[in-house]
Amino acid sequence: QVQLVESGGGSVQAGGSLRLSCAASGTVFSVNAMGWYRQAPGKQRELVASITSGGTQTYADSVKGRFAISRDNAKNTVYLQMNNLKSEDTAVYYCNYYHIVSGPRYDYWGQGTQVTVSS
User: For 56-81, how does the pLDDT look when each residue is reduced to its tens digit (9 = 90+)?
Assistant: First the structure.
C-alpha cells in the first residue's frame, strides 16, 4: 500500500501562483510515476502533469508554460508549481502515484486539495 499526503491548495487571484506538494509513503517502488489530476464541478477528472522516477514529464496542453512539475526521489515527494493561474484552473487537485508490476498498473490517490482562482 502507498499513502499520499497533499498540501498547498488554497485561494488565489487570477495571475497568482500556488505550489502543491505530495509525499508518498509505504511500499514505494523505485520505478514509479507521480503526478496531479484535477476535477472541476461537473467535469471528468483530467491529468494535469506527471513525472516518472526517471524524470520524464507530461503536461496537459492547457497548463503548458504555466505549470511545472518536479520531484525529489529521496523524499518520494512531487511538487506542482502553478503560475499565472486562471479561473479555469479552479478544481480539486488529486495527487496520483502508480507503479507497474509484471503488467498491471497499481494506482494510488491522495485525498484531494481545493484550488480556487478568482478573477
Answer: 999 999 999 999 999 999 999 999 99
Q: In what order do the strands lie in the sheet with 18-26?
A: 2-7, 18-26, 77-82, 67-72
- The answer to whether 80 and 19 have CB atoms below 8 angstroms apart is yes
What's the pLDDT tens digit per position in 21-41? 999 999 999 899 999 999 999
> CA 64 to CA 48: how far, in whole Å?
9
Query: Per DSSP, which regions of the chain are E strands?
Result: 2-7, 10-13, 18-26, 33-39, 46-52, 57-59, 67-72, 77-82, 91-100, 105-109, 113-118
**Using an 8 Å Cβ cutoff, are 36 and 93 in contact?**
yes
The answer to whether residues 13 and 118 touch, using CB atoms and an 8 Å cutoff, is yes
* Sequence letter at residue 39: Q
